[in-house]
């Protein structure tokens, strides 16, 4: 900038008649060039400095521009946990397409377990995920994540709507057996504001109600299994119950979560295939295994009652 300026104005200064005047014009143009360059340099700093930056530099500078963005990120699981997902992880280390990079599903799915992980798969098997997959080539990620300017939502459209950096605002706490209706309402209000870009309010109310009902039925199945297990623990050893305990754990941590993911990511597969039927199967197997244990015990008990007669069924001689 300074060099172009000097060449264009200062070098051409010889045209003036007297030496004094030439010196005057020369120095004033030199000063003008200097200030012009300094001002443009500061102005461009004020706009967007190029980078590269380390993560703490992103935070330091952006805290001054928009403190709320940083506070919201810190409140979320991404900002806690030793900064599980920091600025650079989503945006890269410069301003080169920083927002465009962050909006794309690949940014999220890499960390969230890849295609086969239920969190991601429940989305890719939803209608939203399928449409995005089919139309990916025409997708324009330069658009901000709001105002229905995408046909269907990707991960960030729902979880970081209008630049919200607290991803945890759209997700309830994870003990799925507990029902905290206050918390669910807060989360649903946040989520609803996203869906309403594209769907009618009444449709969403029905959808959310049905979702909670479906989760309540799933919880009932897990509770039934738990009660059977509590009863069985009184009469059986840990070793005898090992397989049943394992099944129960899977029921709670995998299949109940699948129902939750099914209603969260609107995937019929997760609601009706990996979710409810899987829970039914678990419950049947747990019931079966426990009845079998009881039957064996009863049979053994009978045998024990018979021991005075001797194992062969004949009465012991007096
Ligand atoms: C020296 C200050 C400074 C540093 C360091 C800095 N930024 Fe920025 N950044 C800005 C300014 C100024 C803007 C433009 C104003 C705005 O959009 O908030 C901006 C804009 C952005 C945007 C919005 C761009 C868009 O296309 O809408 C993102 C995203 C961003 N910065 C991320 C980062 C990340 C990530 C880092 C670290 C790798 C970083 N910034 C480092 C000052 C900085
Ligand atoms: C989980 C990924 C993720 C992380 C982590 C993240 N961002 Fe972002 N950020 C995004 C997405 C996605 C957008 C685009 C939002 C939109 O289009 O409305 C965005 C938008 C922005 C913008 C533009 C905001 C606006 O309203 O125009 C800035 C500035 C920004 N991020 C800075 C940062 C800084 C600084 C950090 C680190 C504290 C950070 N981001 C961490 C994903 C992330
Ligand atoms: C650098 C890795 C990384 C990236 C990139 C990333 N995440 Fe995460 N995300 C995590 C980790 C780690 C957790 C916390 C998991 C935990 O605590 O069990 C998390 C948690 C979450 C949660 C759950 C929050 C809660 O309160 O339970 C959501 C929702 C989420 N991420 C969405 C996204 C979205 C959307 C993107 C892309 C815009 C994204 N993540 C990108 C690592 C990442
Ligand atoms: C249509 C909107 C929508 C899209 C698209 C979406 N999510 Fe979600 N996601 C939700 C909702 C709603 C919840 C659960 C809210 C609740 O707790 O009731 C959720 C829950 C989650 C959770 C918490 C449960 C868990 O498995 O730990 C994570 C993490 C997550 N989403 C990540 C992602 C990722 C990654 C993508 C993209 C592959 C994505 N989401 C796409 C709406 C969406
Ligand atoms: C950016 C627009 C957009 C947003 C935001 C959005 N959707 Fe959708 N959604 C669509 C489109 C488009 C379809 C496909 C409609 C069709 O062709 O059947 C769809 C389909 C669905 C379907 C399947 C309907 C069916 O007939 O199979 C459900 C359920 C759904 N969305 C729920 C939600 C929920 C809940 C949210 C918020 C968490 C949400 N959507 C956010 C655009 C959106």
Question: Using only CA atoms, what is the Rg?
Answer: 33 Å
Number of strands: 0
List each distinct ligand once: heme C
Write down the secondary-structure element order: HHHHHHHHHHHHHHHH
What does this structure look like?
There is one protein chain. It contains 16 helices and no strands. The chain is mostly helical and 318 residues long. The chain folds into three domains: 45 residues; 103 residues, no CATH class; 110 residues. Helix 1 packs antiparallel against helix 2, helix 3 packs across helix 4 and helix 14 runs antiparallel to helix 16. The N and C termini lie far apart (118 Å). It binds heme C (5 copies). One heme C (HEC) binds next to helix 8, helix 9, helix 11, helix 12 and helix 14.
């Amino acid at each position: 900038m300074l060099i172009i300026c000097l060449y264009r104005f200062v070098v051409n200064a010889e045209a003036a008649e007297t030496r004094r005047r030439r010196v005057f014009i020369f120095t004033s143009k030199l000063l003008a060039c200097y200030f012009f360059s300094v001002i443009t340099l500061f102005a461009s700093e004020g706009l967007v400095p190029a980078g590269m930056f380390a993560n703490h530099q992103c935070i330091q500078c952006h805290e001054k521009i928009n403190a709320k963005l940083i506070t919201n990120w810190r409140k979320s699981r991404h900002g806690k946990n030793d900064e599980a997902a920091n600025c650079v992880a989503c945006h890269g280390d410069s301003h080169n397409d920083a927002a465009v990079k962050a909006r794309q599903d690949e940014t999220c799915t890499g960390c969230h377990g890849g295609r086969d992980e239920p969190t991601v798969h429940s989305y890719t098997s939803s209608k939203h995920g399928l449409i995005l997959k089919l139309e990916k080539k025409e997708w324009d990620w330069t658009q901000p994540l709001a105002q229905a300017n995408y046909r269907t939502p990707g991960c960030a459209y729902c979880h970081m709507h209008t630049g919200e950096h607290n991803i945890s605002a759209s997700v309830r706490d994870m003990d799925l057996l507990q029902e905290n209706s206050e918390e669910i309402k807060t989360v649903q209000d946040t989520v609803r504001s996203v869906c309403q870009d594209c769907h009618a309010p009444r449709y969403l109310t029905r959808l959310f109600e049905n979702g909670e009902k479906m989760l309540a039925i799933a919880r009932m199945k897990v509770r039934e299994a738990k009660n059977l297990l509590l009863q069985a623990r009184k009469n059986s050893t840990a070793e005898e119950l090992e397989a049943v305990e394992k099944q129960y754990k899977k029921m709670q941590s995998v299949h109940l979560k699948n129902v939750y993911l099914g209603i969260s990511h609107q995937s019929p597969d997760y609601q009706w295939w990996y979710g409810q039927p899987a829970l039914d199967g678990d419950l049947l197997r747990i019931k079966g295994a426990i009845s079998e244990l009881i039957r064996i015990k009863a049979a053994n008990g009978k045998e024990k009652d018979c021991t005075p007669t001797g194992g062969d069924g004949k009465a012991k001689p007096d």
